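To: structure subgroup
Subject: Chain for Friday's discussion

All,

I'm putting the inputs and outputs inline so they're searchable in the archive.
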Amino acid sequence: MATAKPIKKPAGAKEFTFVWEGKNKDGKDARGEIRATSEAVAQATLRRQGLRIKKISKQRFKSGGKITDKDITLFTRQLATMMKAGVPLLQAFDIVGRGHSNPSVGKLLLDIKSDVETGSSLSQGFRKYPLYFDSLFCNLVAAGEQAGILETLLDRLATYKEKMQALKSKIKSALFYPASILIMAFVITAVIMIFVIPAFKEVFKSFGADLPTPTVIVIAISDYFVEYWWLIFGSIGGSIYAFLEAYKRSEAMQIAADRFVLRAPVFGSVIRKATVARWTRTLATMFAAGVPLVEALDSVGGAAGNYVYKVGTKQIQGEVSTGTNLTTAMQNSKLFDNMVLQMVAIGEESGALDGMLEKVAGFLEAEVDDAVEALSSLMEPIIMAVLGVLIGGLVIAMYLPIFKLGAVVG
């Protein structure tokens, strides 16, 4: 398939991909694609290249789903594998873009391919889409292009993103299980309060006797649920929505939430280890790629995913830039435990800092795996006990009058 070279577009003009069929200068059938701002511009460009166009149409992409970090990780691994196998860059983009299951990803990759075809470097093509390719990703690709080891750095980048993806999945799974059980417990309790207990209340009216105190309390709570269910559900939903919006828009809320999760009981230790693992693996990846330490720390703070560590990294970067060694700067931040500091110190002294940082990240990731497994095992009996007390207490409170009536009749 031929690909026609488009003319330079006006600044700010939006380009589209056009698919064309026709004949070349030799009268042979030809077809291909061209990027242009309109169909008229595309036809004019093709005519100047000596092509006689029979058919031209704008390429349409099926609407696809949201582009996720998992999609970018998979693309990075596929691109690295193809380049290591000797597949040319543009051809690799074409293969991955057209073969991707998510049309949105395919369109994104073909747009980047078109930018590279028109003279942009690969890192420049990625920088046009900061929503999907962060500064760390772009900086490593740029370093690989400059050093002539793009396929090696893409392989390292793919490994890094796979490790980060696995770590995030483990943390999410650790938090998702108890959260989903608690939500189900609330829903079941609400259904019992709104629909089941009022039926018992009608039956108890015919008894003509005083009800036990637990039953009276449960009925009073049920009456409140029946009368104000809209307020209860609205308040909970509104509070969650307000918190999420405030977290997105307010830096102060993000700082407070990030500080809280690091100090949270049970889960705080796991999240701290996961954050330090991301921090050390990111720094190891950047440093091994030949990025200077001070410059590498620019990307490390944001990649840690926690504001406390982002601020701490800025402090570390400032101290390192004035001549302080990395170990001392990390110690001054008070964000890292002794094991991490000792490993970094050994790495600095031996000249193998990237290797030691990789080992620290691997050790902490293994600890996170063990902690998540232990938490899952620990949470199951606790959650079952809570559900048993909650649901069992409601059932017993409702059946107490029936037991009392049976004792009287007996």
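Points worth raising on Friday:
The chain has 15 helices and four strands.
Strands lie at 2-3, 16-23, 29-36, 52-58.

D.
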